[in-house]
What we know:
Helix 1 (3-34) runs antiparallel to helix 2. By secondary structure, this protein is mostly helical. The two termini are 67 Å apart. It has helices at residues 3-34, 36-43, 52-79, 81-88, 96-123. It has a domain at 1-46.
Amino acid sequence: MDLLAIKREERKLEKELGKLQGKFNCLHAAAKALGSRTSQGVTEVKKRVMSAAAKAKISKATKARWAKFRAENNKKASGSSTIREVARVKKRVLSAAARAKISKATKARWAKFRAEKNKKAKAA
Length: 124
């Protein structure tokens, strides 16, 4: 942008700012005329603050509610035989010998594949 365009934009924004300030002043005057409580609402918005004690109380109640929920779920799980059996199943692990056997078979399969591929390439 050139300097003239920037100056034009600046003047346009200053006019808009003036209009908005005028509207705000009108609102403020109207609120003042209506009473003191309304003017406070227009000028400042209060943020709701919760005390540390209230936060701690809510946190404690939430934790107790979740603990109760988890206890009920554990009770249901311990009562069901299928869930108990599933919980006892250990993760299956391959022995080193089984892993070696699978690896050897895979290497042989790939060697066969490559040999056939080379045979086709030589024939063509």
